[in-house]
Structure formats: C-alpha cells, structure tokens
Amino acid sequence: MDDSDLQTVPLDNTYVETVVHHDREFQRYALDNGVYFAPVDEDEAERLRIIHNVFNRMFEGRLIFPPMPQLRRVLECGFGSASWAIDVAEQYPTCEVIGIDIYPNMAPEIIPPNLNLQVDDLNRPSTFASNHFDLVNSRLMAGGIHSNRWGNYMADILRVLRPGGWCQMVEIYFNAQSDNGTLTDNHALRTWSSRYLQSLQPYKDPRAALQLQNWMTDAGFVEVERRLIILPLSGWSSDPRDHDLGVANRDNVHRLLASLAIYPFTERLGMTPADVQLLVAQARIEADNPAFKAYFPVYVCIGRKPGGSGHSKGSRHHHSHRSGRNGDTRKRART
Ligand SMILES: C[S@@+](CC[C@H](N)C(=O)[O-])C[C@H]1O[C@@H](n2cnc3c(N)ncnc32)[C@H](O)[C@@H]1O
C-alpha cells in the first residue's frame, strides 16, 4: 500500500446524490456547497467524451505536453468522464494513474487496472504525499475551483509533484470571439458569454484561463510556458485542420451552450428557463454561421517543479515544435 491508498476517502451518499433542475441532473453536494454548477448526467458525460476527442484532434493525439521520458505516477484533477485518465492509463500500462473528482458517476464502470479513481473536493487542501507524482493534469476545472483557491491549488499541485515533475493545465476562456470582428455585443453568442462570465462570479474565476501562467509562476513553477490556441465553434475555417476541428467541436458547442448555462442563468441571474432556451438557440445559430468565424480561446500552460532530474530547455524541442504549430494555427485561422 502506498501513501495515496491511505488517503482514499470512503464513498458515501454525500457525493452520489443528485438533484434535477430544468430536466438536467446535478450533483447535490456541488450545488449545496457552491462547488460546480454544470450537470453530471449522461448527456454531460457524453459531452465530456466529445470534448476529449476535440482536444485529441487539437493536440494531434498528444495526451501529455511536457517532455516526460518516464511516467510512474500521474494525477488527474477532475476526471469527469475519465476519458483522459483512461487514455493515459492505457498508453502507459506501467504508470499508476490516480483521478480525483467530486462526482464519480460520469466515469465508466470498467476502467484499466492501473487507473484508480477517487472522490474528493479539490477545493480542500490535497492529502497526497509530497513529491509523489511525475505529472499533474488539470483540464477544464475553472468551473469547479473556487476563485480564492487558485493560489493554494497551484501550491498543492507543486507540493505533490516530485522535484522535476510537471503540471499541465488546459482551460477554455468561455468568451466567444469572432475572427473577423463581426460578432458584436448585441449578438446572442456575446450575450451568452458575458452572462456566463458574470453568473459564475464571485464563486469562480471565469477568467482563470488567462491567469494560469501567472499563478503557476507565482506558485514557484519554472519553465512555465503558455500557448493560446483558437477553438473554432463550427467548421468555418478554410484551413483543413481547423475546419475539421470546428466540425468536431460543433456538437460540443451546441451541448455546452445549454448545459453550462441552465443552472447559473436561472438560479444566479434570474432568467426564466424559456429565456435561457431562446438565448441558447440563437447562440447556436450564430456559432454555426460561418460568416462570424466564431471561436473560444483555449489556454494551455505547462510548468515544472524545480529540482530533480528535470530536463533543461535544450531537451524540449518536441514541445517547442508543437508550440510553433499552434502559433501557425492562429495565423492560418485569420486568413
Ligand atoms: C468540465 S469537467 C472536466 C472533466 C475533465 N477534466 C475533462 O477535461 O474532460 C469538470 C469536472 O470537474 C469536477 N469538479 C468540479 N469541481 C471540483 C472540485 N472542487 N473537486 C473535484 N472535482 C471537481 C466535476 O465533477 C467534473 O467532472
């Protein structure tokens, strides 16, 4: 038994109880404690599987961005449908992958033997042993980490990483942009965006994506690198790769415009369900309209814990190469 086994939180009803709002199922614990406002039903699990495929396309199948010749222990923060954790466990069968989520039931029942899914609230201080993991992954967690927790969240990740270990984070900035400036504040997509960002405050930091690099650096990570990648909301791009990415993302966008909004827009902003549905329907039409060239900015940030058998800048060509391509993506999308 290693240290992590000793920390396992027993599963009780607190974490599996759900409650229905406007035909969607939410985790009662998450709503009661202001932790997370998105549904946890099968529809949302399906959306998370779809977005995992979208990210796989975006990153050309790469699950792990930093240079990591050896992976023995990986921590996945907020495993959701467990798609990323399962892929990593299958690709690295000798690596022990541990996933944490407040809600366990979006993951499939059958998972690889080297994957261990545990229930815990990442807003609480981490109970894992120090210097334990080679890699910590945190993707799409801005809706779940309290706005005042980010500094300590980063510090906890740094503590549980072994010296030389890496943290990788991916966040979408849910502020729809237009690649040709045709979306105005009067459009439904922009209204959806500003209301979404407004509805999460002050509990969450909807601009967390923009802060990852500063927070990582402030926590003491080194070799921190950030990339901005655009995620087309539909297949509007003339570039074949971005076109296919947008086509794959369309289904995710249609689903998230409803699933992320329904609880915060009704309960926090006081909109009627009918008004939310109307706004979502209009926003979907605009997302699909190639004339708007609509996208969400995605931020990818990696950083290394100082010390250990870290890899100097010189050994990081692989990542730099990928980063350069992302820069190209941005440029191509403009044409
Ligand atoms: C948008 S999903 C992202 C899932 C996965 N990381 C991915 O990229 O597909 C967010 C997940 O984080 C979980 N979550 C939210 N807040 C959390 C918290 N404070 N502690 C642990 N898990 C949390 C939710 O239950 C949900 O499964």
From TrEMBL:
Chain ranges of the Methyltransferase domain: 74-165
Bias (Basic residues) ranges: 313-324
Bias-annotated ranges (Basic and acidic residues): 325-335
A biological-process GO annotation: methylation
The keyword Amino-acid biosynthesis appears for this protein: no
InterPro entries, per database record: Methyltransf_25, SAM-dependent_MTases_sf
Record keyword Methyltransferase present: yes
GO function term, MF aspect, one: methyltransferase activity
Family: Belongs to the methyltransferase superfamily. LaeA methyltransferase family.
PANTHER family registered for this protein in UniProt: 2-METHOXY-6-POLYPRENYL-1,4-BENZOQUINOL METHYLASE, MITOCHONDRIAL, METHYLTRANSFERASE
Name by which UniProt lists this protein: S-adenosyl-L-methionine-dependent methyltransferase
Organism of provenance: Phialemonium atrogriseum
